[in-house]
Specification:
Blueprint (H helix, E strand, L loop, with lengths): L10 H12 L17 E6 L4 E6 L12 H10 L6 E6 L12 H6 L4
Parallel strand pairs: 2-3
Antiparallel strand pairs: 1-2
């Protein structure tokens, strides 16, 4: 059956690919990806392919503050189906180690 409307984007699949890509971004001072560190507060994928990422950094003085969001934008924009990426860095709630995954804590010897 043929339809005349725009194709429907599988936002769930796209969100999964975005999350996978976030696992490839690292804070250069910590050998754990930003997703497992708990720096990602939210990912929203719209049916248009627009992706919004709400995140924080370990500290407002983080030396990587200038380039981590740029790296994220570049990597997410490279995913098929993404039409635009917006990275919003927020400081509330503040990050703390309790946001880290168990795997990240184990990797950093925090047990």
């Amino acid at each position: 059956m043929e339809t005349n409307g725009p194709a429907t984007l599988d936002t769930e699949s796209l969100e999964s690919r975005v999350t996978e890509m976030l696992h490839t971004v690292y804070d250069p001072e910590i050998p754990v990806n930003i997703y497992e560190l708990g720096l990602i507060y939210g990912v929203t994928v719209e049916p248009t392919g627009k992706v919004e990422i709400r995140m924080t950094l370990t500290s407002p003085a983080c030396p990587a503050a200038q380039y981590i969001p740029v790296e994220i934008e570049g990597k997410i924009n490279a995913i098929a189906g993404v039409t635009e990426t917006k990275v919003d860095v927020v400081w509330d709630p503040p990050w703390n180690p309790s946001r880290m995954s168990e795997a990240a804590k184990l990797s950093l010897g925090m047990f």
